[in-house]
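Inverse folding, one chain.
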């Protein structure tokens, strides 16, 4: 062995180092102590640190993920809306073409005596009224023309509408309402009501007229600034003042207009009214004659 102090070789049986005098027993004790310490160091295994992330760190990561997802969604929605706006712009450009096609379709339908009816999805036909005026009625309505105007009824003949159109400003009709009432009275009618009404957005002067138990509604309907329609509305029982039928009459009257196209007059439907007729002796077609 070698001396632990000076490194001199110690021979077997020596009690002391011949160079530095260190006892061999001390060297042996130191050697044993070193071995023991080495064994202790080898036996000691330091505890492992706990793995994993703190809860607050996990929560922070989740919040960041949510914020990122929400941000992505906002960006996607913004881009989609931008595309929709672009598409809407294209649609606006094409809407003029659609409108033109619709206008052409309506024009062609009028030429062929029918027009689209957006309210009840049925076609309408164009018929002559009087003095070059035409009007539009539902396709399933029946009518009968005369020299003074046209009589119109629904397919079941539950009401009758007598219609004439005069080139007479509605403003003067209202100014003459009392005079017109006297004309009706002088013809033998009793007037139970006279009033100005707005029906289907149209100005009307309305009289409830009775002649010996025969009741009807007489209405003067504004078509435009220069023309006024005269309608007589008769219920199938000849006694009821049916304002629902008056609304139908006004809806037809406001479609009246001047026409020089002979094709707009169709003979189909003439003489098909079988059960209803006006029983009044008053010639309403002359009511607005000067």
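Residues assigned per position:
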């Amino acid at each position: 062995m070698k001396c632990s102090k000076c490194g001199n070789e110690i021979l077997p049986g020596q009690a002391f180092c011949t160079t530095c005098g260190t006892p061999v027993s001390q060297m042996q004790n130191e050697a044993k102590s070193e071995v023991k310490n080495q064994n202790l160091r080898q036996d000691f295994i330091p505890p492992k640190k706990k793995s994993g992330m703190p809860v607050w760190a996990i929560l922070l990561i989740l919040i960041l993920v949510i914020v990122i997802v929400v941000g992505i969604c906002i960006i996607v929605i913004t881009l989609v809306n931008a595309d929709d706006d672009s598409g809407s712009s294209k649609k606006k450009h094409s809407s003029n073409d659609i409108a033109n096609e619709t206008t052409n379709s309506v024009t062609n339908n009028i030429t062929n005596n029918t027009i689209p009816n957006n309210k009840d999805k049925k076609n309408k036909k164009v018929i002559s009224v009087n003095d070059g005026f035409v009007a539009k009625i539902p396709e399933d309505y029946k009518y009968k023309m005369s020299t003074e105007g046209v009589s119109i009824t629904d397919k079941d003949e539950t009401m009758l509408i007598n219609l004439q159109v005069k080139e007479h400003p509605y403003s003067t009709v209202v100014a003459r309402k009392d005079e017109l009432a006297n004309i009706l009275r002088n013809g033998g009618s009793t007037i139970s009501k006279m009033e100005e009404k707005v029906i289907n957005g149209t100005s009307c002067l309305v009289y409830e007229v009775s002649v010996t138990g025969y009741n009807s509604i007489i209405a003067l309907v504004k078509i435009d600034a220069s023309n006024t329609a005269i309608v007589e509305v008769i219920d199938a029982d000849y006694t009821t003042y049916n304002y629902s039928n008056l609304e139908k009459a006004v809806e037809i009257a406001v479609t009246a207009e001047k026409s020089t196209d002979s094709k707009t007059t169709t003979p189909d439907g003439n003489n098909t009214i079988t059960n209803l007729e006006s029983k009044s002796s008053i010639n309403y077609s002359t009511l607005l004659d000067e």
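Confidence is low (pLDDT under 50) at residues 105-121. The CA atoms of residues 145 and 287 lie 19 Å apart.
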